[in-house]
Amino acid sequence: MYNIVTLQIQRTSLSDITLILLGAGSASRFALPPKKQWLWVENQPIWLKVANDFQNINPFKETIIVSSQDDIQSMSNFADYTFIVGGKSRQESLSNALKNVSTPYVLVSDIARCCLDEAMIKRVLLAKNNKSCVVPTLKVVDTLYFENSPIDRENTKIIQTPQLSCTETLKKALSTNIEFTDDSSAVASMGGKIIFVEGSAKAHKLTTVDDLSKLDCLTQPSNRALTGFGIDIHPFEEGKQMVLCGIEIDSAFGFKAHSDGDVAIHALIDALLGAAGLGDIGEFYPDTSDEYKGADSTELLKDTVRRLNRLGYVIGNVDLAIIAQTPRLLNYKKTMRFKLASLLNLTPNLVNIKATTAEKLGWIGRKEGVAVEAVATLYYYDWTQ
User: Fold this and answer.
1) pLDDT for 95-126, tens place per residue?
2) Which domain holds residue 205?
3) Burial 89-103 (b: 16+ CB within 10 A, else e)
4) Are residues 361 and 326 part of one domain?
5) Is residue 3 in some structural domain?
6) Are residues 72 and 37 in the same domain?
7) How many folded domains does the chain comprise?
8) From residue 219, how far is each of 34, 43, 48, 330 by CA, in Å?
């Protein structure tokens, strides 16, 4: 029997509870280009929808989101939550987050449980009890076998999240080499009280692509176009190979730069990052890092495309304007177009290259360097298709 707490739908003060949302996994079983945390629902990614939905049910003292370092670099542009780098396991990720919790209670859930049942969450919150763990569960309705022998399903439960724990109790329970699959298992191992409340079939966990059809709270992503602008400038440097759009240009000089100086690709990366609201090229590939000294800019562009795809973006088209008094680029434009199209996984007609001079005006007109402006369009990956 469930220890069911009478439900009273009301907004209560949660100043003594911190919310932790776990999403540091690699989503290796999710066979789509974006990570499941980055599927878009209308105009927001799933991780942000879950965090906001929890806050709309009842504001918590603090919301901590646990994810990978790469994801956090992007997530921090979306909301002012607290972001913590996860570990190699769920338990390590949770332990990392708990170091930042000062409230007496903590509510832990998985971002992958992306459809919230307000009534179920209220049941968990209202069952709060010192030195315990409150767990939502479902009854097992199918026949169960364990090692080829049937077992009594009345003595089994399906465990869900979110789970509400006494913070100090959970911290102590996790300070062991034993690996636990959820909070309640850890608390139970040290004799803590486990309080079961009725769970919800709505709280189905998103693990594989097939689960998408079982989650009716996930609506189609917006079809809005996202536009970004980029600009880059580099002076000339004699005795260096000139590279533009990943193509070697016949010239006595190249570009003075920390990397190979491909000013066109640098402007394009800025445009792509700008369309996604992710900052600029220096935040991801800083010119103060030895890692990128002499770097091949085509590899930086490939990494940018990979990053955008994992975050649920699809590149629509790009348009570049190269402003150069020298060298003359007319005979290179088509090769540049096809090279960038290959790097961006686009058909060549969606990549446009324009080249113009500065009419002998200014530093470009004096043949001291080159400037490139770029525009890029992104769309949200439509997982419903």
Assistant:
1) 999 999 999 999 999 999 999 999 999 999 99
2) 14-214
3) ebbebbbbbbeebeb
4) yes
5) no
6) yes
7) 2
8) 16, 10, 14, 47
